[in-house]
Amino acid sequence: MTSVPNAATPRTSPAEALASGGSQLERRLVVALSGGMLLLVSWLARATMGFAENVTQIPAAIGAVIVATPLFAGAVRELREGRAGGNALASLAVLAAMANNFFLQAGFLAFFLWLAELVLSRTAWGAQRAIRDLVELTPDEARVVGDDGGERQVALSQVRVGMRVRVRPGENLPVDGTVVAGSTSINQASLTGESVPVEAQPGTPAYAGTTNLTGQIDIEVTAVAGQTTIGKVETLIREAEKSKTARQELVEKLANYYAPVVLMVAGLVWFFTSRSADPAVRDAAAVRAITVLVVTTPGALLIAYPTAMVAAFAAAARLGIMVKQTSTLEAAGNVDTVVLDKTGTLTTGKFAVSRLVPAEGVDGAALLQAAADAEQSSNHPLARSIMETAQRARIAPAAVQGYREVPGRGVEATTGAGKVQAGRGMWIAELNPGAADEVKSVEEKLEGMSGVHVMLGGRYLGAVGLEDKLRRNAAETVKELRELGVRKVVIFTGDRLSVAKRVGQAVGVDAIEAECLPEEKHEELKYLIRKGSRTLVVGDGINDGPILASADVGVAMGLSGSDIAANSAGVALMNDDLRSVPFLLELARKAKGIVAANIAASLLLALVGLALAATGRIDIWVTPFYQAAAYVFVIANSLRLVRYGEDFAAAEEMRRAQEAIAAAKPVRAAARH
Fold first, then answer.
1. I need a labelling partner for 642 at 20 to 30 A (CA). Which of 11, 262, 319, 410 fits?
2. Is residue 243 within 8 Å of 326, Cβ to Cβ?
3. First and final C-alpha spacing in the chain
4. Letter string b/e over residues 413-430, b meaning 16 or more CB atoms within 10 A of that residue's CB
5. How is domain 141-227 classified at the CATH fold level?
6. Which DSSP string do the residues of 446-475 spell out, in sequence order?
7. Which residue ranges does the chain devote to CATH 2.70.150.10?
8. In this predicted structure, what is the pLDDT of residue 483?
9. Which residues contact 136 (CB under 8 A, 6 or more apart)?
10. Which pLDDT does position 668 carry in this prediction?
11. H/E/C letters for each residue in 45-73?
């Protein structure tokens, strides 16, 4: 007995809904128990005290009206929407029982059906609360630091980007920002699922809702309110709650056709039993028809899909996997081809400059200076690594008068020394065809490293060679994907073929598409889709946006990924653990199986109940319990998903602890000596 919300009804915010959710459930429970007490008094008066039936009918009638009123209200809403669902069918059964003076039976019928709905509401509210707790971690106030160093406590709504916020040990961060003063350990487990604290110092990004553990820090605000990472998580949850898939819409349409069929069957049962030669059967005609209406109420069918999805979202969110829509989770259960970006996905994205390869007649310091001048405004991992190396070499980048980023190729900046370009060798060769041979010669010297080629004022200066580390669990992730039945795992990357081959061989992929521009990646993906592949793409960069949006399932990798990637993808991973991808596929397939089991069980119980009721083999007193049993099965079966993945999380936590112990051993040994 579930009423589907009117799509035209304004939705309250999640915060308001949660604030009133618990008290609303309590009020409904009090009303249900009040009506139930009157029904119990009526039954006891008749069974043990010998009161006349017309006397005991009074509390029974009052109690029946009290507990049936919410059913009637739900039925009216359904009829206004032009459909006859669970509430309408249950209300008809209760009204028919009342019309035949079965006030006590009608009352208990409504009471148990309403209790079943209360159990469902409490379960769904609890699951949503578990997800919403994540969002409530953000404080309502922030400690803003003025230009004079003084502090003032202000409401979070008054904090603006660019302000400086101070966070003391033990406090939750109110905003997203960058640490500009102090050092500390930050627990990001509530947001990413990572149990090991992050060591933060000036330059480290920090996120709202995480906990400052050890030191006082000042943060320069980069995002507030709904623009913070945790605010975006809230948006994802709200979008997921509102979304419907074709399967869910099919179930709801089935339920709408279901009600008229049940009414017809109940009418036929009444027609034939009322014309039976047996007087006892004729007298029970109305009761049998009412019993048919009750046992076939499609409430369990209507909740078969949403309860499983709510539970699956809760399980995914606990491990830092944010799914935007139910359709995305459903599509993940059918994936057979996985496309992986290289930089920042299979690799850590934390490059280190390994070699400077200057062109003939060029000094290495001049090469690094020009590279830093070009890359200082870029957020690309290669650019950040070059800037770190330049800082260690005490090279200060020149002031930039103009800057533009060419997706998939490189960057171009205008400085006092002239126009400087830094990026892929192929792009530099296009800009300066005369330097093509020199670019090729330099690339050969990089020996499998990623290279950023630099040109200043039309003169080719050489390349900066960088190496990127493979993620520790990249090969294990590919192996798990194959065990889950994924037929093809491929790499799409803009990096050179020699670099991509080294990574591909290490993790064991099936194919590599290297030196791809964003539009070329998109064309390759469309080719896979045309061949019938059901694709999942994992990426983190700006140039991954088009393929993340085009794939059946797009997964944006980690908090460090670009906003364009996160907005284009259907799934956002709040941590950098690649093993979240096979877990997502496994969870989606588990959810798919549970939904199928829920639907099958709901229909089977309805058919069995229909047969028993039509033949008079089930008493009307038993029908509320029979209906409740269907609810209990569906809810209990769905809630198995809430705790799904706990073993995965526990194993990851144990592994991190072992790594921390192993890393600490050399430090302790060095300290002893």
1. 11
2. yes
3. 72
4. bbbeeebbbbbbbbbbbe
5. 2.70.150
6. HTT-EEEEEEETTEEEEEEEEE-PBPTTHH
7. 141-227
8. 93
9. none
10. 46
11. HHHHCCCCHHHHHHHHHHHHHHHHHHHHH
With vertex at residue 232, the alpha carbon angle to CA 231 and CA 238, rounded to the nearest 5 degrees, is 95
The yes-or-no answer on residue 341 being catalytic is: yes
Q: Structure tokens of 207? A: 């996120």
Pairing of strands 164-167, 151-155: unpaired
Cα dihedral: 288, 291, 296, 299 (round 10): 160
All residues at 6 or more sequence positions from 118 whose CB lies less than 8 Å from its CB, including other chains: 25, 28, 29, 32
Short-list 307, 302, 326, CA closest to 3: 302
- Kindly state the helix (H) or strand (E) to which residue 245 belongs, with its residue range: none
User: Which of 277, 299, 274 is closest to 288 using CA atoms?
Assistant: 274
* CATH 3.40.50.1000 location in the chain: 321-348+470-574
513/488 Cα distance (integer angstroms): 13
Here the tokens at position 610 are 């229909």
Q: Which residues of 143-165 are buried (b: 16+ CB within 10 A; e: fewer)?
A: bbbeeeeeeeeeebeebeeebbb
Residue 269 dihedral angles phi and psi, to the nearest 5°: -60, -45
Hey, is 553 helix, strand or coil? strand
Annotated active-site residue in 133, 278, 336, 341: 341
Q: Is 195 helix (H, G, I), strand (E, B) or coil?
A: coil
Strand partners, 181: 218
Tokens standing for residue 631: 């609810």
Reduced 3-state DSSP string for 603-655: HHHHHHHHHHHHCCCCCCCCHHHHHHHHHHHHHHHHHCCCCCCHHHHHHHHHH
Q: Report d(CA 167, CA 28) in Å as an integer.
A: 42
Which tokens in the block code for residue 245?
A: 């898939």
For the chain, residues classed under CATH 3.40.1110.10 are 352-467
Residue type, 331: A
Angle, helices 299-318 vs 86-99, to 10°: value is: 140
Hey, what are 602's tokens?
Answer: 């709901």
Give the C-alpha separation, 245 to 325, whole Å: 9
- The pLDDT of residue 240 is 46
**How high is the pLDDT of residue 111?**
78
Strands 450-456 and 459-467: antiparallel
What distance in Å separates the CA atoms of residue 64 and residue 247, rounded to the nearest whole number? 36
Mean pLDDT by 10 residues, the chain (673 residues): 35 41 63 79 74 75 84 80 69 78 77 65 50 60 87 88 91 89 80 64 86 89 72 54 54 67 83 79 78 78 81 83 83 93 80 88 92 88 87 90 86 92 92 90 82 93 88 89 94 83 90 83 89 90 71 77 57 82 93 92 89 84 78 87 75 62 50 44
d(CA 328, CA 569): 10
Q: CATH classification of 321-348+470-574 is 3.30.160.390, yes or no?
A: no
Q: 352-467 belongs to which CATH class?
A: alpha beta
